[in-house]
Amino acid sequence: MAATTLSRLTERLADPSLLRATGCIGGEWVGAVSGATYDVLDPATGEVVATLPRMVAADTRVAIEAAAAALPGWRSMLTTARARILRRWADLVREHADDIGSIETAEQGKPVTEAIDEVRYSAGFLDWFAEEGRRVYGDVIPSTSADTRIVVLKQPVGVTAGITPWNLPAAMVTRKVAPALAAGNTMVLKPAPFTPLTALAIAELGIRAGLPPGVLNVVVGDVEDAAAIGAELTSNRTVRKIGFTGSTAVGKLLLAQSAAQVKRVSLELGGNSPFIVFDDADLQTAVDSLMASKFRNAGQLCTAANRLLVQTGILDDFVAAAAERAGRLVVGHGYDDGTEIGPLINSAGLAKVERHVGDLLDRGGTVVIGGHRHDLGHTFFEPTVVTGLDPAAVMWREETFGPVAAITPFGDEQEAIDLANDTDFGLVGFVFTRDLGRTWRVSEALETGMVAVNTGRVSGEMAPFGGVKESGLGREGSKYGLEDWLEIKYMNLGGISR
Ligand code: ADP
Q1: What is the β-pairing status of strands 273-277 and 305-311?
Q2: Other CB atoms closer than 10 Å to residue 272's CB: what's the count?
Q3: Which of 250, 263, 350, 400 to mutate to test the pocket of ligand 1 (most atoms within 8 A of CB)?
Q4: What is the pLDDT along the chain (498 residues), one digit of tens a residue?
Q5: CA–CA dist 93, 437 (Å, integer)
Q6: Long-range contacts made by residues 112-117, C-beta under 8 angstroms, separation at least 24?
Q7: Which residues are CB-neighbours of 384 under 8 A, at least 6 positions away?
Q8: Ligand 1 center to residue 335 CA distance, Å?
């Protein structure tokens, strides 16, 4: 009998107890109040990997109560004690990176080596914020009155919620959980319906590391359950903050829902990233970076280059080199040796990519390589390079979230900046040039939260990740990322003079 995804996964796991298939509330592994379940599928084959509870508002309420019950103990724990737990957790995640990566590939589809890298990256947030949590400094501000002293404290927000996407099922979890918990908050986490198993494995390791019951609760549910869970998280007065990574449409909805109680909100939303290659760029660097930023995770990254702007002098060479490299990418199941590109997450993702490519071709665009569903079937799509992208195309306005590099030529620097900023989004801009003056001019002119110069990567636990315009609110990672999970309290102390 042919091996199934589940049998391949089970065979790979050194520690099968990491494969958890229920929610986690108050330190207990629990099903849904209703008893309803749904299936998590391998996007590469459509096979069932696990059956999980369909949790809704009632379950979410119980999780919020558990987080509230855990708050007094957790927020008053010494920061050194919290840091020890988070550091131990980071060590456990690294120790079990192969297992968690295997679980992630089964539900998400990405090559297992890439998944393991992501898991290691996700451990970095736990380490980093374990330490940053010990550096939550206040201030003493000179007063204008001899009788008073002004002191600034930073305190946890309280019970918080994290809602995470399926494209980076490990890193997006720790990027929220680590700063929230390090700051002394407790959390209800709702991972994406397609990829709950990675989040649950990380939660299991958190418990092993010593997280007290209720500090982190995980509520899982199917696609249709997200609205009910989200409505409870945003309307329940106990929850004081929502941290969300996902689509701009859902981000706007959560922001609107949170307005009723003026809840704090951090949002990491869509990008529509320009990738600007100037004539003086190093071609090899630009093409290597395109592989990292456009084709990694099959293009399913909010930071993915979406609009490639290439100066006319280097255009032909760049198109040829990009197509040659894209044509060599190995497409396959994430568990198969050598795979560089897995499937898209689901049929809706595939349909979007086809719609974007179809629209571009209808407008006179040209396929240089790829352009179709892959022979492997399911949700696989060929690594694709197309030319003829222009501002009238759908792809110019929406992120494609697939392995499609679409190219627009430009003449001079100002035109590149104008084209790059011609979007409602502003997450990251990629710039390729060897001219120092141009590096500064273009970086300053881009309306984005991040700029990557001569590299295709921007993320790291030590750097402030986030966008401007409709790409989001707030920053994650770095010392700035901790601020988003803290409240400032100012004390005016009178009666000092004798
Ligand atoms: P995508 O379209 O890439 O799946 P989404 O924004 O729909 O992105 O999903 C990101 C996360 O937001 C997932 O965990 C998803 O279940 C959740 N989500 C979707 N709709 C809602 C909603 N109405 N309220 C709260 N969370 C939601």
Answers
A1: parallel
A2: 28
A3: 250
A4: 579 999 999 999 999 999 999 999 999 999 999 999 999 999 999 999 999 999 999 999 999 999 999 999 999 999 999 999 999 999 999 999 999 999 999 999 999 999 999 999 999 999 999 999 999 999 999 999 999 999 999 999 999 999 999 999 999 999 999 999 999 999 999 999 999 999 999 999 999 999 999 999 999 999 999 999 999 999 999 999 999 999 999 999 999 999 999 999 999 999 999 999 999 999 999 999 999 999 999 999 999 999 999 999 999 999 999 999 999 999 999 999 999 999 999 999 999 999 999 999 999 999 999 999 999 999 999 999 999 999 999 999 999 999 999 999 999 999 999 999 999 999 999 999 999 999 999 999 999 999 999 999 998 999 999 999 999 999 999 999 999 999 999 999 999 998
A5: 42
A6: 112/334, 112/335, 112/339, 114/296, 114/297, 114/334, 115/170, 115/334
A7: 326, 357, 367, 369, 370, 371, 402, 403, 404, 405
A8: 27
Contact indicator for 449, 474 with CB cutoff of 8 Å: no
* CB 367, CB 358: distance < 8 Å: no
131 noted as active-site residue: no
Distance between CA atoms of 23 and 330, rounded to whole angstroms? 36
Instruction: Return d(Cα 402, Cα 204) in angstroms, integer.
Output: 32
Q: What whole-number distance in Å separates Cα of residue 498 and Cα of residue 495?
A: 8
Tokens of 87: 């550091």
- pTM equals 0.98
- Structure tokens of 426? 């502003």
Instruction: Answer whether 250 contacts ligand 1 (Cβ < 6 A).
Output: yes
Q: How far apart are CA 412 and CA 498, in angstroms?
A: 69
- The answer to whether 24 is a known catalytic residue is no
**Cα-to-centroid distance, 169 and ligand 1 (Å):** 13
Distance of CA 52 to the CA centre of its chain: 22
Phi then psi dihedrals of residue 463, to 5 deg = -115, 145
Tokens (6 digits) for 322:
């990009």
Task: Count Cβ atoms below 10 Å from residue 210 Cβ, excluding itself.
Answer: 14
